[in-house]
Design a protein that fits this description.
The chain is of the alpha+beta class and 216 residues long. The protein is built from 6 helices and 5 strands.
């Protein structure tokens, strides 16, 4: 279910081509006003309104909220789960065996194939150039990654959206990953600010919980 603020659903998806005036299709100026477009966002109380303000000021567009629970969540899952190393189009996390950092990456291949490549690239002698941040970390420190403990963080078939998810996970764990800063260079300031806000809230919640536990 989506809250539309009184706008038609088609506004969420941009202006359909059939509704673009003929003059605009041919590159001519048109006097017909375009329909307003919205970003769809899952509603999270206490945070959604702040995100909408940031999107409005940074991107100049508006946000339409969608509900967290979808109809499909009411139905039981009948498909067998796919083994994690046979999943593809994923964002994954590989922990380092020598320190508390990890490497976050994305691939459209099977995870097990990508892990094999990482293991090969991080085995001495490691190349000097053109290597991943994972191999660079092994080269600099001599640490070996725990490839068997790889976890899947996200799954998305769309390449651009998967890259965005990868950047978000790296940014969220920026002090605990071996990834390069350039991996998050293209992340919008909106998302960076949102993650910063989320991290602050999480930290505050943890400190409140530990204070309450200490008082018991
Ligand atoms: Zn390490």
């Amino acid at each position: 279910m989506v809250l539309f603020f009184g706008r038609p659903k088609r506004c969420l998806l941009g202006t359909p081509r059939s509704e673009v005036p003929e003059g605009e299709k041919r590159g001519r100026t048109s006097t017909v006003e375009r329909l307003p477009c919205y970003h769809s966002l899952t509603y999270v109380r206490g945070m959604a309104e702040r995100v909408r303000r940031m999107v409005r000021s940074e991107l100049g567009t508006d946000v339409a909220f969608s509900m967290f629970s979808k109809c499909r969540s009411l139905f039981s899952k009948v498909k067998d789960p796919v083994e994690s190393d046979l999943r593809s189009c994923v964002v994954y996390n590989i922990p380092c065996g020598g320190c508390d950092k990890s490497y976050i990456g994305t691939t459209k291949q099977y995870v097990k194939e990508r892990i094999k490549q990482h293991a090969r690239d991080s085995r001495p002698p490691i190349k000097e150039e053109g290597i991943t941040a994972l191999a660079a970390h092994s080269k600099e420190t001599g640490h070996q990654f725990r490839f068997d403990d790889t976890t899947i963080l996200d799954v998305h078939k769309h390449h651009g959206k998967r890259k965005m998810l990868e950047s978000l996970h790296i940014q969220e764990n920026i002090n605990n990953v071996t990834n390069r800063r350039s991996d998050v260079a293209n992340l919008s300031t909106v998302y960076s600010a949102l993650l910063h806000l989320h991290a602050r809230k999480k930290k505050k919640r943890r400190s409140d919980e530990s204070r309450n536990t200490g008082n018991v």
